[in-house]
Amino acid sequence: xxSICILRLSAIGDVCHALALVNVLKKRWPDCKITWVLGKIxxxxxxxxxxxxxxxxxxxxxxKGMRAVWKALKKRRFDALLHMQIALRSSVxxxxxxxxxxxxxxxxxxxxxxxxxxxxxxxLPEGYHVLDNFLEFARHLGVEEPKPDWSLPLPPEATEWAExxxxxxxxxxxxxxxxxxxQRTWLPERYAAVADWASQHGVRVLLCGGPGExxxxxxxxxxxxxxxxxxxxxxKTDLKTLWAVLGKATAVLAxxxxxAHMASCQFTPTVGLYAHSNPRxxxxxxxxxxxxxxxxxxxxxxxxxxxxxxxxxxxxxxxHLMAGIGVDEVIxxxxxxxxx
Length: 340
Fold this sequence. Notes:
Layout: E1 3-7, H1 12-28, E2 33-39, H2 40-46, E3 52-57, H3 63-72, E4 78-83, H4 88-94, E5 99-104, E6 120-121, H5 130-140, H6 156-165, E7 172-176, H7 188-200, E8 204-208, H8 213-225, E9 231-232, H9 239-248, E10 251-255, H10 258-264, E11 270-274, H11 279-282, E12 292-293, H12 295-303, H13 327-338
Parallel strand pairs: 1-2, 1-4, 2-3, 4-5, 5-6, 7-8, 7-10, 8-9, 10-11, 11-12
Helix pairs in contact: 1-5, 1-10, 6-9, 7-8, 7-13
């Protein structure tokens, strides 16, 4: 392979797993020119990967954003296009990318008619996780037994900042409190209870999140409910710095959100809180044993079928499903990791 274009725009967690594939391809074909079309925010995290050209798609710009991508790639023809996003918008975007081979997901998972925009499809992977699907693209290209590699370059200032907020050898717990959808976020008073338990055992507790109004409010609510002080870095980190902080933590607590994957990709023990999505599909890949899983019970109650009999990606619905996760079971997952 001399040139590959990867089309995976979002979201942060999925882009982290696409990174694992990119590194697999780089190792297999060191001289291959890899071009990755992705979103603006995601590009901030992935910037600086040696040998990988990032082409940013601004989805808010609509057709104008598509035309900008098409213009950037106008004179290019790739050996292969790996179409790794099922959204119809992504498929339309792919029409302006020229490639000898156009490869998409297997028919059972090629939602929104993605299969109409590709000429080849990967095999149905043995694994259930999103990453298993992504690695199947490498197998389709001839890479035998691809092993995920999430190596990501960081600027020195990101590492230095992480060392300042998590100094020395003291155990640390980073609580990434919010998800992109409010219904997937746990309750602030329960986060506070876990934070107090950790603080009582000498663990340094940090709150992290984005600069949005809802996330800042959630951090304030946790601080107010907590008896012991916590360090609030919500809204104070860019994505590279957050990656460094999560990599230095002793443990991370998070719902179904991008930072959960950013942490697990670095093998930081990650306790994931799942009530809406199947953690076997979207949970922290390297820490499935640390997941608190309410999804199975919720989907069984709603669909009257176990998850194994439902289409891949089926989600449980409800505004208050996260309330089914208790403090004690979360502490039970954290205890062996933090109190070694």
